[in-house]
Predict the structure.
Amino acid sequence: MWGQLREILNQSAIRTTRAVADFLPGVLAMLVILIVTLVAAVICQVIVGRALRRIGFDTRLQLWGFPTLADWSPSKSPSLLLARLAFWFIVVLGALVGLNALDAALTSRLVARLFGYFPDLAAAALILLIGPLVARFVARSVLISAVNMQIQSARLISLGVKWMVIVLVAAMALEHLGIGGVIVLLAFGILFGGIVLALALAVGLGSKDMVSRSWGRQANPSQERSDDVIHHP
Amino acid sequence: MVDLSTLPEEARQAVERLGSVDIVVGIPSDEDGGRIETVARAVSAGLAERCGQYRSAIIHADGGLAGGSRKRLPALSLEDTPLIRVPYELSLVHRLSAPYHGMPGRDVAFRVILTLAHALNVKACVVVAPDVGSHSSGSVGRLLGPVLQDGYDFVAPRYHRHRFDGTIVTGIVYPFTRALYGKRIRQPLGDDFGLSGRLVGDYLRQPVWDTDVARFALNLWITTRATCGGFRVCQAYLGARAHAARDPAIDLSTMLSQILDPLFTDMDRNNAVWQRIRGSEPVPTFGDPLDVDAAPVSANLQRMRESFRLGYQTLDEVWSQILPPTTMLDLKRLSRASDRDLLFPDELWARVLYDFALGHHLRVMAREHLLGALTPLYLGWVASFVTQTESAGADEVDAQVERLCQAFESEKRYLISRWRWPDRFNP
C-alpha cells in the first residue's frame, strides 16, 4: 500500500512538473514579448510625439477648427494624446501576441470577439469625433442668430442646444458600444427632455420683448413705419 | 462666337432681323406689369431725344414667377425703338433664394441682356432697373453719353440719397472698394449702369455667372471687374433713388452676408491688384447733382445700440477669434460708453472690417458665422454715424464720409501686413 501511495505521489509530482515545464516556456516567451513590446512602444511614443511637435500639429489643429480636442488632451496637447495612443496600441498588440504564445486558442477566441466588436467601436469613435464638432457648429449658429434677433438669453439657448447635441451624440455612441442598454436610453430621454424644457423657457422668456413688438406691429401696422426704416443697401 | 441657342426663337429671330445696333437698353424684371411699359416708353423717348442719330433697341428680359410655366408677355410696342422681349425660366435655386435686391434670377436676366447686346455688336449698352429709379428720359442719356462721346467703358450711377439711406454702402462697400481698388465710385452697388461693347464682351467671358457672386452681388462684381480690369470708369448723376418694397424675409444679417461674402471673395480673386494700389483717385462725374428731395429716413438708435452692446456681451468669444486684443479692448470701452459717447472712431471701424475680411480669407470659422457676427458691430457703427450726422449739414456729412474713406486708405497698410503675414498677427 505504501508503495502504491508513493507511486501515485511520484506520478502526480511528475505530471505537475511536466505541466509547469510545458507552461513555463510560454510564460517566459510572453514576458519576453511584453518587454520587447514595451520598449518598442516607448520608442514609438517618443518618435510620434517628436514628429508631431516638429510639424506644429497642436497649432495646426487649432487653426483647422478642432480646439475641443486640445481641451480633452493630456496637458492640452493633442500631440501627446496621439503619442500615448500609439504607445497603448503597440502595448495591446504585444499583449495579444504574448497571449498567443501562451495559449493560441484563447487568443484566437479573443481576437475573433474583438474583430466582431470593431465595427461598433469604429462607429462609436466616429460619432464621438464628429459629434462635438457638430455641437459646436450648431451652438455657434444659434448664438449668432439669437443675438441678431436681440434675444437676451442667447448664450443660454446656445448652451442648451450644444448640450442637447452632446447628449444625443453620447447616447448614440453608448448604444453602438452596447453599454448600459435601457438605462442609457432612459437617462438620455430624461436629460434631453429636461434640456428641451429649459430651452423652451429660455426662448419664451428671452424673446418676450420681440414677441410683444411683433404683436404690436400686427395690431398697429403704422407703428412699424415710424420705428426704423433705414434701407441699408 | 455668341451662343444664342439657349434663347427663345423670337429673340434669335429679332437679332437676325436687326443685325447690329449701336445702343441696347436692357430692362430686367421678374414680374411683368404696367410698370415695365412706363419704363420702356420713358427709355424709348429718351433714346429718341438724346441718341436719335444712333440705331437702338430695347431688350426686356422677364423671369416671372409663374410656377415654372412660361408666361406669355402682354403685347407692347414702341413707336421709336424696336423692342425685344425675352422671357426666361428661373431655376429651382433662383426660386428658393431670397436675394437682398428682391429680384431672384436677376443674374440670368443680365446675362440674357448682355448676350443679346454682344450678338447685336453694340457700341454701348445700358441696363436700367425698373423698380429703383424714377426713370426720366434723361437717365438713359446720362448713362450713354460718356460711353458714346467720351470713350468710357463703364458708367456707374450716382444717386441722390438721404444721408441715412444705404448705410451698408456708405459705411462699408464704398470706403472698402475705394481703398482696395483706388477709384472713388460712390455707389458701387448701383442698379443702373452704362457699358461699352468691349466691356460687355469681357463680362460674358468671366466664369462668374453660375456662382453666388452673380446670384447675390452681381452689381458689385460688375463695378469691381470694370475697376480692376483696366477699363475707363466714370459715374453719372441720376437723381433720387426709389426703393422696391422690401422682402420681409430678408433680415439685416442675411443682407450683410449676401453683400460682404462676394466682396471678401473678390479680394481673394483680385489680391494681386489691390495690394499694389495706394490711395485713391476721383473718377470723372457727368451731369449735375439734381435738386430733388430724397425720401426722409428715420432710425431707431436705441435698438441699434442695444444690439451692439448685446453683441459685445454675448459674442465676445467669437469676435476674439477674429479681432486682435487691442480692438476688443476698444470695443469693450465703446460698449460701456453712454449713448451719446458711443461713437465709432473711423480707424477702429476700418480695422474691424479689415480683420473680418482677413478672417474670411483665412477661414478662421465658418463664413456664415463670421459674417453673421458682424451684424451687431455694423449696427453700432450705424448708430454712431447717425448720432454724428443727424444735425449736420450736407457738406459736413460728405466730409464725415470722406474722413471715413481716408481712414480706410490709411489703415490699408495694416490689412496688407496681416494678409501677407497672418501668423505674426494671429489674435
User: Anything to note?
Assistant: The two ends of chain B are 51 Å apart (CA to CA). Residues 301-319 of chain B form the longest helix (19 residues). The mean pLDDT of chain B is 84.
